[in-house]
Amino acid sequence: MSLNYYNFKKNLFFLLLVFNFWYIFFIADSNSQSSMTICGSTNKGWYSTDNNTYGSNICTTKCSDLKVDGTGYARGTLSNGDFGLCAGSATSSELTIYRIDLGTSNGFSGTDKCTVFEGNITTDFARLNKGQTGGRGVFKTNACKKGVSYDRVYFYINRIQSFAGQTVFPDNSGTIARTQSTCSSNGVTTVTDTSWLDTITAGKWTNNALCYGRPSNTWSSPYVKASTTDLVTNSTNTSSNAAITYDDFKVLYLATGTTDADGFYRESGTTYFGVKVDSADSSKNIYAIQNGADFISGLPIVFENSQKKKLNLSISYYSPKRDDDTTVGVTFLFKRNGANAELAGYLPGDNGMYFTFSYN
Q1: Which domain holds residue 70?
Q2: 2 falls within a domain
Q3: Going by C-beta distance under 8 Å and a sequence separation of 6 or more, which residues neighbour residue 178?
Q4: Which residue of 38, 91, 163, 172 sits 20 to 30 Å from the alpha carbon of 327, by its own alpha carbon?
Q5: Could you read off the pLDDT of 278-321 as tens digits, one per residue?
Q6: Half-sphere exposure of residue 157: CA atoms within 13 angstroms, side-chain side
Q7: How many domains, the chain?
Q8: 55: helix, coil or strand?
């Protein structure tokens, strides 16, 4: 999850957000997760995160390991005028969980849905190391019904995510590419079509009033534009990383555009994961995750009349920090212009949440 974006799931390190609970509360264990892969000299390239092309054997290529005019990359090179993606460092990347509900096959409006947490748990993924606890919360399960099969979870999470980061221009300039202040504030808007989304024509963004864009309609992810019109060249003299806000709802809306009976936008081909805006607070998304999704385990849960059994939940995240002190966590979109790189935009890397439930 990012909750999804375009699969940094194979490329970063895990950190843990752990919840502690007692008796009718959850309890959780902290587990160190295995490391993921950064592309090396033999398998790097501009399309290293293309899951459809390279299957499960995915690695992420850092921008510092590429050149826009580089050749012989195992995972893709750029022709002149092409756009490519690479990973830069995140200097901040925050996410807040406000509420967690358990649900059943009766759906989002089912009377057996129960709220197990309401509060505020914020984690800044960019600042945590592998295995480090990101936040804690106390959750009660006494509202949940005995003998009912809870096979889905609803997470209420901030819709507008904040991130900042930097990398190097992938050319020979040695210049630092940073998140820019031009389109740093992207507030909540009503999304009913793609009128909020810009495209690039003749090497420039088309509409300077818009802050989200993609190179063309064939690209499935929206990027925050690094400038309103012209792409940013390696002559930039920006000296700090601007904090960028990013509307996470727009990602799945752009990928699907259709809803299920409960109003959730679901990724094509799956019934296991969806998102919709909280009707009571448009600044929050509600993420529906069902048994069968590849980032959750331990469902369904059936509560018993037992004083001994407890519900355990751990939520793991990817940490952008690696053991060699290099970091990733922001995806940068560059265009090749001869031997020069031009920065078009960026988006936050997937935080890679994985949910593990047990009841014992």
Answers
A1: 13-359
A2: no
A3: 165, 166, 236, 238, 240, 241, 242
A4: 172
A5: 999 999 999 999 999 888 999 999 988 877 777 777 777 665 55
A6: 23
A7: 1
A8: coil
